[in-house]
Design a protein that fits this description.
heterodimer; A: 92 residues; Ubiquitin-like (UB roll); 3 helices; globular; B: 385 residues; mainly beta; four-stranded antiparallel sheet; 1 helix
């Protein structure tokens, strides 16, 4: 189960994802997002656009590596991966 | 009569109510979030806000308790087959790429309008109109307008033409895409709709959005080789007279225009020597079709008040003559800019707000003004609700 950490603002917008450590069964970043969508309907449209593309001013890291496939989020996620989803400085 | 004013700002949504003889604003929602447009549905009482998060994108929000609490509404989303023709900027070498076919994604929620029977209309950037028939439980892209021949036709199915007469708006934030900013529902025939797009012009649908007709005859664009071209007009805002809806007004990039025949033809009624020409918003009297208000800016090349004095201009004769309305408005060192949705009107009362965070209200058709607030965030929309 990947461990997921969200930017504080996302926890404010989706309080059902705040608090306990988030763990999601996923083998790709896209599956992490869809797993969170299942728990918090509407979440995916905050992080991605209608076509599932990562929004311009959002970053997702797997460990310390920023995702490379921003179009389909196919970057692999391991069972012990740490996935961070946060806003980019560029969108401030 | 609406007794409160809904104000959308760069940093949240405000409700302004009259208490103790004064209009007082209160932040009611979306603190820190850009609210491009906020309005109340007169048929249901629901309040709506078109938000724009810098990171998380455009989101529609609603309140069913007069602004006390807000929650995400059903969201406006472009279908995955929706495409449009964009105009990229010159690249670093100075090369100007040809028109590019883009996958549509929601860039901005820009305007809202409401019709009877659960109809809600949403104007967006990159230029699509979304419609709901169920009080906002769901929204669908209006395909006939999206696939209009003037912007290339049905680009999703490959039958279109890679040629568009729709150009962009600087309000599109990062991409020069068209923006649908005005939606009018005919008060006597709700199937009859008008929309205005920066930068294409005005279109009318006589049948609830199934067909759309060019309504740019008489418009003048001083920045086109042919100023009276069929398309490419930068309407900033259009508004109609509810009691006499053949009277429609337009504040354009190229002046103030007036139609007395339901947008079939337009006539420029600017009075540049009085400062009435450039600006963004426009408002119309509820029953006197020849009475309208604008908030003049000096020029498109100098988008500021004229001489540091803020004023509203009013005509009562279809634009033949205009009068300055300045009582109670700052006349020195006032550099307020009033954007296209930031002038509201409701039966003799007006309110407008500026990008410098000042909000002014008049209860006598603009003859005198009071200051309702200073220091608000930049104001994007003002609507009586």
């Amino acid at each position: 189960m990947a461990k997921v950490e969200l930017a504080r603002h996302l926890c404010v917008l989706f309080p059902q994802l705040a608090g306990e450590e988030l763990q999601v069964e996923a083998s790709t970043v896209a599956e992490v997002v869809s797993g969170l969508e299942a728990r918090a309907p509407g979440f995916a449209f905050y992080v991605c656009d209608e076509r599932g593309r990562l929004r311009t001013h959002v970053n997702i890291f797997v460990g310390e590596v920023r995702v490379s496939d921003r179009r389909r989020l196919t970057d692999p996620v391991m069972s012990d991966s740490r996935v961070l989803i946060m806003q980019a400085l560029s969108g401030g | 009569m609406a007794d409160q004013i809904l104000v959308g700002t760069r940093k949240g949504t405000f409700l302004v109510q009259k208490t103790g003889g004064a209009w007082r604003p209160r932040l009611v929602g979306h603190a820190g979030v850009c609210c491009n447009y906020a309005a109340g549905d007169p048929h249901t009482g629901t309040l709506w806000a078109a938000l724009g998060f810098g990171h998380w994108g455009a989101k529609l929000s609603r309140s069913d308790d007069n602004g006390e609490t807000w929650h995400d509404a059903s969201q406006v989303k472009y279908p995955t087959d929706a495409r449009y023709l964009g105009h990229p900027m010159p690249d670093e070498t100075g090369e100007l790429a040809a028109t590019v076919l883009r996958d549509a994604t929601l860039l901005k929620l820009w305007a809202l309008a409401f019709g009877p029977g659960g109809q809600i209309y949403v104007g967006t950037i990159p230029g699509g109109l979304f419609m709901s028939k169920d009080n906002g439980d769901s929204f669908q892209l209006n395909r006939p307008l999206w696939n209009h021949e003037s912007r290339g036709g049905d680009l999703a199915n490959g039958r279109g033409v890679l040629d568009t007469h729709w150009f962009g708006t600087p309000a599109s934030e990062g991409e020069f895409a068209p923006g649908l900013h005005s939606i009018l529902v005919h008060p006597q025939d709700p199937q009859r709709l008008y929309v205005a797009i920066s930068t294409a012009g005005v279109l009318e649908s006589p049948d609830g959005g199934q067909t759309w007709l060019n309504r740019n005859k008489g418009l003048i664009n001083d920045y086109l080789p042919n100023p009276e071209a069929e398309w490419g007009h930068d309407a900033h805002c259009i508004a109609l007279c509810p009691g006499d809806p053949d009277h429609v007004w337009q504040q354009s990039h190229n002046g103030v225009f007036y139609s007395a025949d339901g947008t079939a033809t337009w006539k420029r009624v600017s009075q540049p020597q009085q400062g009435v020409h450039f600006g963004f918003p426009i408002a119309v009297h509820e029953s006197q079709g020849g009475t309208a208000w604008v908030v003049p800016g000096k020029a498109d090349t100098e988008r500021m008040t004229i001489g540091g004095g803020l004023f509203v201009a009013r005509t009562q004769d279809g634009g033949r003559t205009w009068e300055d309305l300045r009582a109670g408005l700052p006349q020195q060192n006032a550099y307020d800019v009033v954007l296209r949705h930031a002038l509201g009107y409701d039966r003799g009362r007006l309110a407008f707000g500026s990008t410098t965070g000042n909000l002014f209200v008049s209860e006598d058709s603009g003859a005198t003004w009071s200051t309702a607030a200073n220091h608000l965030p930049p104001i994007y929309s003002v609507r009586f609700a």
